[in-house]
Design goal:
Layout lengths: L2 H14 L4 H10 L5 H17 L7 H15 L3 H16 L8 H19 L9 H13 L5 H15 L22 H16 L6
Helix pairs in contact: 1-3, 1-9, 2-3, 2-9, 3-4, 4-5, 5-6, 6-7, 7-8, 7-9, 8-9
InterPro entries: DhaL_dom (IPR004007), DhaL_dom_sf (IPR036117), Dihydroxyacetone_Kinase (IPR050861)
Organism: Jiangella aurantiaca
GO biological process, one term: glycerol catabolic process
């Protein structure tokens, strides 16, 4: 899919992320400082506006750079900085690609995941967004083309797995075992975005 077409798809999905604001706020309040809903809603709105502004000849890197900068500006927070930095790193990994083809998507997810892990000082199993991003990267690496529905299922399983993990990073670590049974908010945000993509173009594969 051409970068400009994917940008329009991303924008439409981001428009729907406002629906997840209250859920993400509640999850973060249970094991964090409660600002995740605002961060994601503001960041998604910024991304939607930014990627709608890319031209018809935009390349993948241009779309990702615009998205990363907009998300980071949306609401100053550690999550916004991590996601924004991950998207900018993803842009560098895509070279001069002009379409979000399977190889490009694999490269950008891998780069974003690696950067978020490094900057956040976290690893899978510590109840963070990585517990969704790493399985998604594995799924993309294992097949030349992955249906979006399969990625949604993978993310859903990752979110469910976080309910059995004791928080180990950030403010969530302060609550310790009291966080058990509550899904990680960042991981849930990724799932909701994939579901928003699915609802706007259910037959798309990546």
């Amino acid at each position: 899919m051409r970068a400009a077409d994917t940008a329009a798809w991303i924008a439409a999905a981001c428009d729907r992320m406002a629906d997840a604001k209250d859920e993400l706020t509640e999850l973060d309040a249970a094991a964090g400082d409660g600002d995740l809903g605002v961060t994601v809603a503001a960041g998604a709105a910024g991304v939607a506006a930014a990627v709608r502004g890319v031209g018809p000849d935009a390349d993948v890197a241009g779309v990702l750079r615009a998205a990363g900068a907009a998300f980071a500006r949306g609401n100053p927070s550690s999550f916004a900085a991590l996601v924004g930095g991950g998207l900018v790193a993803a842009a560098r990994a895509t070279g001069d690609a002009v379409a979000f083809d399977p190889a490009t998507v694999r490269a950008l997810v891998a780069a974003a995941t690696s950067t978020i892990a490094e900057r956040g000082g976290s690893a899978p199993g510590e109840r963070t967004v990585l517990d969704v991003l790493v399985p998604l990267g594995d799924a993309l690496a294992a097949s030349p083309s992955v249906p979006l529905a399969e990625l949604v299922a993978t993310a859903s399983a990752g979110v469910e797995a976080t309910t059995t993990m004791v928080p180990a990073r950030g403010r969530a670590a302060w609550v310790g075992e009291r966080g058990l049974g509550v899904p990680d908010g960042g991981a849930t945000a990724v799932l909701r975005f994939l579901q928003a993509l699915q609802s706007t173009r259910s037959e798309q594969t990546v």
